[in-house]
Amino acid sequence: MGKTYAVVAEARDGKLRQVSLEALQAAAMAKEDGDQVTAVLLGYELSGPANELAARFQGQVLVIDHPDLKTYLAETYLAALSQAFDTLRPDLVVFGHTAVGRDLAPNIASRLQAGQISDVTAIEKNGGEVLYTRPVYAGKAFEKKVFLGGNGVITLRPNNIPPAEPASSPAEIVAFDYTPEPSLRSAVKEVVRKATGKIDLTEARVVVSGGRGVKSPEGFKPLEELAEVLQGAVGASRGACDAGYCEYALQIGQTGKVVTPEIYIACGISGAIQHLAGMSQSRVIIAINKDPEAPIFKVADYGIVGDLFEVIPLLTQEFKQM
Ligand code: FAD
Predict the structure, then answer these.
(1) C-alpha to C-alpha distances, 194 to 44, 191, 234, 246, 248, nearest whole angstrom
(2) What's the mean pLDDT in 204-220?
(3) Does residue 235 line the site of ligand 1, with CB under 6 A?
(4) 8-12, 156-160, 168-172, 195-199: range with lowest mean pLDDT
C-alpha cells in the first residue's frame, strides 16, 4: 500500500498562503507513484482557499471549518489536526516554516511519535531515499537529512520550492467533522495587527531592507517607494528597529524573520552575522552602503558604494520606467 502525505495548509484573511502551494509541491517531490496526498485546511469560512488548493493537485482537501478555528490558537488547532490525523494516519506531514507551522510541527511530531526536519529548503531523491536540505550555522553550511523509517514531519521555508502548478482535474473537497475541544486552557480575546505592508515579508519576491544608515523613520520613505515599484515588501535590520525607525515586525535576522526572496536590497545595513542569518539565502543580494569595507559586500552579488538617499531614488526612477 502507498504512503499518505498530509500537507497542512494555511489561509489568512480568506486567502491561501503561497507557502501552502509550495508545501503541496514539496509533497509531490517526496512522494512515489501510488502515494496519496491530502491537504488539511483549518480555519473558518474556507470555501475560497479550499477551492484554490483543490485546483493544484489530485488528491483530497480535508477542510476543518469551524468558528473556534477563526483565530490561531495552538490548543484548538492541535486538537483539530490530531482528530484529522487519527483518521488519516499520515506517513509524512508538511508544514510551512511559518509562525503557525513552527508552533504546530513539534507538537504534531510528538503526538505522531515522528521525527522532524525543520526549515527545509530543498528536496531530492537519491535511490530509494528522500534527502531534505536545511541551512545550519546561520546559513554558513547545509545539511542533508533523511528519515530513518517511521513517520516524519517537515517544515518548509517559504520561497525555496516552486508552488504546485494547476492540476488537470481538481482534488476532492471533503468537510471534516471537528469535535470542539471541551477543556481549553486559553482563548484569544483580540488580535491587534501592526501595519506591516500589503505583502507578507516572508513570502515577498523582493525585499527592500533598511538599517541604521536610514537614520530616521522618515528615512524609510524612499525604501517604501522602491519596494512599491518592485511590488516587494520593506524589511529592516535590528539596528533600525532598536533605533525606533520602524516596527520590530520588520526585523530580519537571527532573532527576526527569515526571508528568501528573489531579490534582497540591503540599504545602510553593515551585514552583521545575526542579520545575515535571516537573508543570506536570498537568490540575489544587492547592497547599498557608503562604506566600501562594510561586511555586507562580502555576501552581496551586486554592491553599490554610495549614499542610499541618492542611490535609491535613482533606482526607483529607473524601475518606474521599465
Ligand atoms: P550598523 O551596524 O550601525 O550599520 C549601519 C550601516 O549603514 C553602516 O555599514 C554604514 O556604513 C551604513 N550607512 C550609514 N549611512 C549611510 C548612508 N547614508 N548610505 C548608505 N549607507 C549608510 N541584527 C539584525 O539585523 N537582525 C537580528 O535578528 C539580530 N539579532 C541579534 C541577536 C543577538 C543575540 C545579537 C547580539 C545581535 C543581533 N542583531 C541582529 C544585531 C546585529 O549584531 C547588528 O548590531 C545589527 O544588525 C546592526 O544593524 P545595522 O547594520 O542596521 O547597523
Answers:
(1) 22, 10, 14, 11, 10
(2) 97
(3) no
(4) 195-199
Contact between 204 and 261 under an 8 Å Cβ cutoff? The reply is yes
Asked whether the beta carbons of 207 and 236 are under 8 A apart, the reply is no
Contact by Cβ (8 Å): 147, 93: no
Tell me if 58 is assigned to a ligand binding site: no
Of all protein residues, the one whose alpha carbon is nearest to atom 31 of ligand 1 is 274
For residues 171 and 196, which has the higher predicted lDDT (pLDDT)? 171
Q: State whether the beta carbon of 305 lies less than 6 angstroms from ligand 1.
A: no
Which residues does residue 37 pair with via DSSP β-bridges, in sequence order?
Answer: 5
Say what the pTM is: 0.86
Q: What is the pLDDT of residue 192?
A: 84
- The CB of 273 under 6 Å from ligand 1? The reply is no
User: What is the CA angle 11-15-16, rounded to 5?
Assistant: 55
Q: Whose CA is nearest to atom 3 of ligand 1?
A: 212
The stretch 288-305 carries a mean pLDDT of 98
Cell numbers linked to 40: 488539511
C-alpha cell read off for 273: 552575522
* Percent share of the chain, pLDDT over 70: 99
User: How close are the terminal C-alpha atoms of the chain, in Å?
Assistant: 53
Helix segments in 33-168, DSSP class H: 47-54, 74-88, 99-112
Q: Is the CB of 251 under 6 A from ligand 1?
A: yes
133 CB within 6 A, ligand 1:
no
Nearest alpha carbon, ligand 1 atom 28: 253
Q: What is the rounded average pLDDT of the residues 254-279?
A: 96
Closest CA to 203 of 119, 96, 309: 96
130 CA → ligand 1 middle, Å: 38
Amino acid (one-letter) located at 300: A
